[in-house]
Every structure is written in structure tokens, then in C-alpha cells.
């Protein structure tokens, strides 16, 4: 998560609301679940793909 | 040697939702290609989904209009844009843009905008009730599509809704390619003066709204008036067009109305993709950039055809078909990169509430003129319809 790059568009929350949230103050991305379950992975991949500012990066593991 | 083209214009007759036909051919041949601008500049045209995303995500491309060449001639426009005044962050690059946007993003989050759903529902019901009371025919633009987003942005920002006709008149002028530079300047002065007074009023007597809260920041009066200008303009002349044009699209694709009801969130994304009302943008290379095997030189303008990108078959199979059951995530209708629409979550809430409610209330809703005769807004920055005369059966 790169909160410096984040522009608070909220695309990640739309893609996978169980993993991503937005800060109440500045609207930037918050990671709710750093190791999402397998059934969440498609949503997480979509979040990374649609993020307008490249603030979401997936790590293998 | 690449073949240089000029910007295609003109929508195919009888297909009000389709981009100029030539754009698809250009995209399928070469998604990033040289473009000859009306002032003689040779820049680029991006029509492919991937190429557009790459440009919009790259900080080496600027949004400053005073550096740009424009792909279509505008009435009375001599080609020189003045530098953008402070606060017009849509036309600013990082770090200036970052500062303004950072003050606003917390106010437009998914959660905050979804909390407004109840208020959007209330406003929608009020306008549906008024339509029903006044009887079985109306112009859907003025009775429904315009007032709902107008009321929401006025309340959110703290601008007087009673002045909405004044706001709407001026935002329409800014978006109109046929408005002369002189008329645009007059409009800007009148609207700007109004907003400057509003800022002073909020400073003197703060109320419970975004503009009052922004007077607590270090923004100057001029910056505040310009931020208010952007938010109000963006709130007034965008979603209204999506609601009206979206309704027309559903009239011409009646089999899709059930899908709208079944999954409004999914349906709204597809309407956004298919209609691409904010159809074109420009960026300027600040440095030499290699992209797609081409060299974009510093100083060259790239025209971004969002509507062509949204119909790119490499991204969306059978792209010219409106399919409300499609997963349309990744469309470019709110842009991409650091300027991606700040108000997009508000727009989504407004559309996902208003559109299904309209067809729920009036199951027999239909246009009173043939869809091909509905007067469209052409030659504008944001597509839409001028009027949408509708009727319905009274039970």
C-alpha cells in the first residue's frame, strides 16, 4: 500500500471491501486484511489493476 | 512512416451512443498514432485502452491546458490558453494538484457517499412524486435528471439550490464548443463573482457544509472559489447527463431494464462504460516518453479518446453492445491516474438510486418521440440529451 501515491478514488473498496478501506480523515487506502483468503484474491487483483494511481501492489506469498 | 490523421468527429446517424465510427478503425489499426491538430501541431491520438491508461498514469504527462494543443477547433479561440488560476486542480500537476486533492478526498470516500444514499432516495422520491402529480408527460431532463444531482452537490458544498438555474446556465456555456470565447469569459466572470461572494459569506457565517469546512484550511478566497467552481460544475453537468442519456439507452434496449433492477451497481458501471459522456481529454509530454514502440517528444500533446478506449475489444468483448450484466470494471469513464474523478462515488450512488427508482415508479415510461429524434448535445465536452420528452400510463 502506498498511501503517498493514493488519490482516494475508492476503486479498491469497490473491488474488495473486505480487504480495503479508506481513512476517515484523508480518504487514503487502508489495508484491513494483509493476507486475504483465496476467495478474495480475484477482488484484490482487480483492486490492484484498477487503482488509478498505482498505490496497490500485490506480493506473492 | 506513420499515417497522420486528424481528429474524427461526427457521431453515426441513428446511433447516438456510438463514438465517431472512424475512431474504432483508427484504434484497431494503431492504438497510439500521430495526430494533426487544427493549429498545425503534430501530436498523438490514444484510442486503445492500454495506451490511454499508460498515458494517464504517467507523471511525465501534464494536465496544464496552457501547454496543450486541442484536437478540435473552438469558436473564437486563438490557440493560447491562459495559465490556470490557483485552485483549478483538475488542470494542475503534482505537487500543486496533490495539495488540493488531499484536502478533498476524505470528503468523497465510498463510505461517506454511501451514507448519502438515504438522502438521494428521499430527493428521488420527491421528484418522482412531483412527476406523478403533474401528469403523464414531462421533460425528463428538467423534471428528474438535472435536479437530483444538482440538489445533492448544492447541499454537500453549501451552495444555494435556489440559484441552480444560474449555475446550470453557466456550466452549460463552459461545456459548449460553439460558445464564443467572449461568451465563455462573461460566463466565467459572472459565475466566478458569485462563488467569490459565497466564499466570503461562508467565512463570515460558516454553515454545516464542505465549503464552510474548507474555509478552515489555508486556502485563499480565490483558491476556494475555484475549488467550488470545479466541484459545482462537475456535480451539475455530469450525472444529470448520465441519468438522461442512460434512460434513453434503456428505452432503446428495453430488455436491459430487468438487469438494471437485478443488479444496479453492475448496471451503472456498464452504462458508464457504454455512454462515456466525458469522451475526450488531453495531456502534454513534459519529457520524451517511449510508449508502445513510439517516441512521444517533450512538448507534444496526446489526445485521449476515453470513448474509444471504453469500446476497445481487447479490454471489453463485444464492446459496442450494451450489456448490463457485464463486469465493466476498468472502464475509463472517470479517467485514470491522479486526476480520476473525485466525485465518482457520489455519481455512482445517484445513478444506482435514481435510475432503478424511475423505472420502478413508471413501468410504462417511454419517449414521446422516436429515440433517433431526441435532441442530443453534440459539440460539447460532456455528452447528453437536450430534452427527453417522456410519457407513461396512469393506472
Structure explained in plain terms:
- The complex is a heterodimer of chains A (61) and B (395).
- Helices cover 25% and strands 10% of the residues of chain A.
- Chain A has 61 residues and is an alpha+beta fold.
- Chain A has one domain: Alpha-Beta Plaits (2-Layer Sandwich).
- In chain A, strands 1-2 form a two-stranded antiparallel sheet.
- In chain A, β1 and β2 form a beta hairpin.
- Chain A is globular.
- Chain B is an alpha+beta fold and 395 residues long.
- Chain B has a single domain, classed as Cytochrome p450, CATH 1.10.630.
- Chain B contains 16 helices and 13 strands.
- In chain B, α12 packs across α16.
- The termini of chain B are far apart.
- At the A-B interface, α1 and α2 of A face α3 of B.
- Chain B: Keywords: Heme, Iron, Metal-binding, Monooxygenase, Oxidoreductase.
- Chain B: Belongs to the cytochrome P450 family.
- Chain B: GO terms for molecular function: heme binding; iron ion binding; monooxygenase activity; oxidoreductase activity, acting on paired donors, with incorporation or reduction of molecular oxygen.
- Chain B: It comes from Umezawaea endophytica.
- Chain B: This is Cytochrome P450.
Short account of what is shown:
The complex is a heterodimer of chains A (61) and B (395). In chain A, 25% of the residues lie in helices and 10% in strands. With 61 residues, chain A is α+β, with helices and mostly antiparallel strands.
- End-to-end distance of chain A, in Å? 16 Å
Shape of chain B: globular
Give, in order, the helices and strands of chain A: HEEH
Global Rg of chain A: 10 Å
What spatial order of strands do you see in the largest sheet of chain B?
A: 1-2-3-9-6-4
Average pLDDT of chain A works out at 93
Low-confidence stretches of chain A: none
Task: List the strand order in the largest sheet of chain A.
Answer: 1-2
The CATH architecture assignment of chain A turns out to be 2-Layer Sandwich
Give the amount of beta strand of chain A, in percent: 5-15%
Number of domains of chain A: 1
* CATH first level of chain B: Mainly Alpha
GO molecular function (chain B): heme binding; iron ion binding; monooxygenase activity; oxidoreductase activity, acting on paired donors, with incorporation or reduction of molecular oxygen
InterPro entries (chain B): Cyt_P450, Cyt_P450_B, Cyt_P450_CS, Cyt_P450_sf
Family (chain B): Belongs to the cytochrome P450 family.
Keywords (chain B): Heme, Iron, Metal-binding, Monooxygenase, Oxidoreductase
Amino acid at each position: 500500500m502506498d498511501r503517498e501515491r493514493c488519490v482516494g478514488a475508492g476503486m479498491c473498496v469497490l473491488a474488495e471491501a473486505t480487504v480495503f478501506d479508506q481513512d476517515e480523515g484523508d480518504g487514503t487506502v487502508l489495508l484491513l486484511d494483509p493476507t486475504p483468503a483465496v476467495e478474495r484474491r480475484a477482488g484484490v487483483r482487480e483492486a490492484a489493476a484498477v487503482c488509478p494511481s498505482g498505490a496497490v501492489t500485490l506480493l506473492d506469498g | 512512416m506513420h499515417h497522420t490523421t486528424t481528429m474524427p468527429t461526427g457521431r453515426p446517424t441513428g446511433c447516438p451512443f456510438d463514438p465517431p465510427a472512424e475512431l474504432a478503425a483508427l484504434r484497431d489499426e494503431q492504438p497510439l498514432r500521430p495526430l494533426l491538430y487544427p493549429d498545425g501541431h503534430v501530436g498523438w491520438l490514444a484510442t486503445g485502452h492500454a495506451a490511454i491508461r499508460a498515458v494517464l498514469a504517467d507523471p511525465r504527462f501534464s494536465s496544464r491546458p496552457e501547454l496543450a494543443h486541442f484536437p478540435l477547433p473552438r469558436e473564437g479561440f486563438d490557440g493560447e490558453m491562459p495559465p490556470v488560476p490557483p485552485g483549478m486542480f483538475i488542470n494542475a500537476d503534482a505537487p500543486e494538484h496533490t495539495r488540493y486533492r488531499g484536502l478533498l478526498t476524505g470528503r468523497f470516500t465510498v463510505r461517506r457517499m454511501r451514507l448519502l444514499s438515504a438522502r438521494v432516495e428521499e430527493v428521488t422520491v420527491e421528484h418522482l412524486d412531483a412527476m406523478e402529480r403533474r401528469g403523464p408527460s414531462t421533460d425528463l431532463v428538467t423534471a428528474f435528471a438535472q435536479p437530483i444531482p444538482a440538489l445533492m452537490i448544492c447541499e454537500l458544498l453549501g451552495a444555494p439550490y435556489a440559484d441552480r438555474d444560474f449555475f446550470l446556465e453557466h456550466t452549460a456555456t463552459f461545456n459548449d464548443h460553439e460558445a464564443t470565447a467572449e461568451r465563455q469569459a462573461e460566463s466565467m466572470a459572472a459565475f466566478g463573482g458569485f462563488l467569490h461572494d459565497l466564499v466570503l459569506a461562508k467565512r463570515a457565517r460558516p454553515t454545516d457544509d464542505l465549503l464552510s469546512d474548507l474555509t478552515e484550511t489555508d486556502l485563499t478566497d480565490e483558491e476556494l472559489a475555484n475549488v467550488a467552481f470545479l466541484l459545482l460544475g462537475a456535480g451539475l453537468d455530469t450525472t444529470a447527463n448520465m441519468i438522461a442519456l442512460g434512460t434513453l439507452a434503456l428505452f432503446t434496449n428495453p430488455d436491459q431494464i430487468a438487469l438494471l433492477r437485478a443488479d444496479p451497481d453492475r448496471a451503472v458501471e456498464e452504462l458508464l462504460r457504454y455512454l462515456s459522456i466525458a469522451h475526450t481529454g488531453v495531456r502534454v509530454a513534459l519529457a520524451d516518453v517511449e510508449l508502445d514502440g513510439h517516441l512521444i517528444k517533450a512538448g507534444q500533446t496526446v489526445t485521449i479518446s476515453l470513448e474509444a478506449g471504453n469500446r476497445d475489444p481487447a479490454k471489453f468483448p463485444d464492446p459496442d453492445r450494451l450489456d448490463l450484466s457485464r463486469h465493466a470494471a476498468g472502464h475509463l469513464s472517470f479517467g485514470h491516474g491522479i486526476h480520476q474523478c473525485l466525485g465518482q462515488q457520489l455519481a455512482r450512488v445517484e445513478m444506482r438510486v435514481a435510475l432503478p427508482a424511475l423505472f420502478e415508479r413508471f413501468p410504462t415510461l417511454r419517449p414521446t418521440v422516436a429515440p433517433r429524434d431526441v435532441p442530443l448535445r453534440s459539440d460539447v465536452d460532456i455528452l447528453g440529451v437536450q430534452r427527453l420528452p417522456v410519457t407513461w400510463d396512469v393506472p
